[in-house]
Amino acid sequence: MSRETALRATSEGRLWQALLIGGALAFLGIFLALPLIAVFAEAFKTGLGAFVLAVQTPDALASIRLTLFIAAISVPLNMIFGIAASWAITKFEFSGKALLITLIDLPFSISPVVSGLIFVLLFGANGVVGPWLAAHDLKIIFAVPGIVLATLFITFPFVARELIPLMMEQGKSEEEAALSLGANGWQTFWYVTLPNIRWGLLYGVLLCNARAMGEFGAVSVVSGHIRGETNTMPLHVEILYNEYDFVGAFAVASLLALLALVTLVAKSVLEWRFDMNSGAGH
Amino acid sequence: MIRRAFITRMLTAGTLSAGLMLAACSGKPSNPDAIELTNVSYDPTRELYQDINPAFAALWKQKTGKDVTFKMSHGGSGKQSRAIIDGLSADVATLALAYDIDAIAAKSKLLPADWQKALPDNSAPYTSTIVFLVRKGNPKAIRDWADLIKPGVEVITPNPKTGGGARWNFLAAWAYGRTAGGSEAAAESYVKQLFAHVPVLDSGARGATTTFVERGIGDVLISWENEALLAQVKLGKGKFEIITPSVSILAEPTVAVITENAKKHGNAEVADAYLRFLYTPEAQTAIARNFYRPRDPKVAEQFKVQFPAMTLVSVDRDFGGWAKAQKTYFDDGGVFDRITGQK
What we know:
The complex is a heterodimer of chains A (about 280) and B (about 350). Chain A has about 280 residues and is mostly helical. Chain A has two domains: about 1-45; about 45-280, MetI-like fold. Chain A has helices at about 1-45, 50-55, 60-90, 95-110, 110-125, 130-135, 145-170, 175-180, 185-215, 215-225, 235-240, 245-280. Chain B starts with a helix and ends with a helix. Mean pLDDT of chain B is about 85; it is low at about 25-30. In chain B, strands 4, 5, 6, 7, 8, 10 and 11 form a seven-stranded mixed sheet that branches. Chain B has a four-stranded mixed sheet with strand order 2-1-3-9. Chain B folds into two domains: about 35-125 and about 250-280, D-Maltodextrin-Binding Protein, domain 2 (3-Layer(aba) Sandwich); about 130-250 and about 310-340, D-Maltodextrin-Binding Protein, domain 2. The longest helix of chain B has 25 residues, at about 1-25. Chain B has helices at about 1-25, 45-65, 75-85, 100-110, 120-125, 165-180, 185-195, 205-215, 225-235, 260-265, 270-275, 280-290, 295-300, 315-320, 320-330, 335-340, and strands at about 35-40, 65-75, 90-95, 125-135, 155, 220-225, 240-245, 245-250, 255, 295, 310-315. Chain B contains 16 helices and eleven strands.
């Protein structure tokens, strides 16, 4: 009797398990795999030649260069800011800490369009510092610096959000030990803190990079859409699509999708290393 | 104490690289013989200026020996106008309607208020109008505005609250209602019935075209003539037909030198020459080739098959100008809100 119940329970469990797994896979297939396949299918619809031609137009190349340039500036800066912020939050006690944590999350919680408009309000011709900038012939908004600033703002939380829980969990005993053994601040960071956080840090940097290259809303507001100059890849995709150049649009989009795939693989590898690492540590 | 010094160092490094980035971006090498002209335009003019720009560059090179390179920016007309007000440093603006350039003049003082007198034909070197795009063979037998409100006909037009092009569609429909019914009340009743036949209100003209052409929704697309002709060529020859209604509206996209910006860049002369070039037979032919109606009567004669004669009303003459039309029909609490039952 009791064995029968147990048996039925497991068989029901299996059924549920299969249903749940099937459901999840179907969901993933419909909402992730299919669109991804569609992007690549559209991009290569008229053959490899058309794809290569579409990616090689001067405007497309300029948008790729700009996107890489933006990421090359904003990701390292946010790595430094992220480490500094999480270091300050986890290793020191000070008043206003909760406020700082909330502020770090701010870019996550407000719409990217609003983030973009903040910079227009600040640096636009009618903005707070706009007239001063114009008088000194400095261009921020509708130029590359504006796009960098917007991207920096949007991607700021990624590294810090990744590091804060990790560093909190690790505590500060190892750093204190290093200091008491005579290490200076730089040595403590380089030989103790950094090795402890490196996988988390890399993971944060990866997410930060993916978003920096893919950001649309905030960048669209501050870009000015000047072809070959302030058009990033996501903006270029939209423009090509609106111009009925579907092969071109999906060709550039597939490059972005490829980047997402690479990020996904790198992320899985990192997670795996990360797990091994923290598993060995405890 | 030591840790604090470390953080200071990190922050200094961050500030330094930010400083470097700004330095790298603001300085621009300037070659006295190279001219960079920024043309801030609206969405459907890309093909047009891709045609015009090299022709003007060749002419200018021949005339002055200087190379002109163009920087093009395209977007919704209202958005582009806003960007110029906020500091996008356009030398010339080539937008969808005078209202958007008026806004720049009023809010930024970058060009004189009477800018429209600077060039011939109210500074509108090309025009367009509103036509119908129907599916091949015209299965619903659509000939004129009256056919759009027959039972079972689905009409695609964007939302006039958000799209510039959509306002032209609305006013064209209104003009028909007024002509056919003889009164404003008849016009309102016609337009109300028309919008009851609209299954999706897209936010912009390109979105509406995509809805009709790519997604296959609707029986008729109310569209700019240039967009309809372009869609026919680009998205499927022989899949669509253009129907010219009995009454439509004259759309006058306007162009202007943003004088203060052009002066600052040393481009005042070339910017003016560029816009005047648009009125030459060479540019007018390019304009007609790109599906805008040319002003030049000789060029118009050559392209008369593509642009059949129509009765066209004008916003200035028949609706009291854009500022008034905007207020009456499209602002919150206006006629469009009343018709669609909002507010």
